[in-house]
Write a structure and sequence with these properties.
By secondary structure, the protein is of the alpha+beta class. It is built from five helices and two strands. Strands 1-2 form a two-stranded antiparallel ribbon.
C-alpha cells in the first residue's frame, strides 16, 4: 500500500490531502483519524503563516471595498443613502467625492484594526 500526502495552496488556505491506493482503507477508522489530523495541520499551517505576516483573503476584503469606495465615492454614497431610506444631496456628494481628507478617512478606516 502506498500513502501519498499532497499540499495544495489556495489564496485563503492550504489543504493537505492524503490518498491511499487501497480502496478498503477509506473506511478504516485509522485512515479517518489521519484525515482529521491533516485538517488540524491545515489550521496550524494557516496560523503559522498569519503569524509570519500572511493576510488571509477575508481580511483583504475590507481593503478592496475601501478602494472601490475611493474610486467611486458617489456610487457608494448613493447605495448607502438608498439603504438608509435617505435622499442623496448631489452637491454635497460631489464636494465630498473631491475632498482629499474624506477619501483619506476611508483608507484610514479600512486600515484600522
Amino acid at each position: 500500500m502506498e500513502v501519498k500526502v499532497e499540499a495544495k495552496t489556495f489564496p485563503d488556505r492550504i489543504e493537505l490531502t492524503q490518498s491511499f491506493e487501497d480502496p478498503h482503507f477509506s473506511r478504516d477508522p485509522i485512515v479517518n483519524m489521519h484525515r482529521e489530523i491533516l485538517k488540524l495541520k491545515d489550521a496550524v499551517v494557516r496560523d503559522a503563516l498569519i503569524s509570519l505576516g500572511w493576510t488571509p483573503p477575508e481580511e483583504n476584503n475590507k481593503y478592496i471595498e475601501a478602494l472601490k469606495r475611493i474610486a467611486n465615492p458617489i456610487e457608494f454614497m448613493q447605495r448607502e443613502a438608498k439603504q438608509n431610506g435617505d435622499e442623496l444631496n448631489g452637491r454635497a456628494a460631489i464636494l465630498l467625492s473631491n475632498d482629499a481628507q474624506y477619501l483619506k478617512d476611508i483608507a484610514k478606516e479600512a486600515s484600522a484594526p
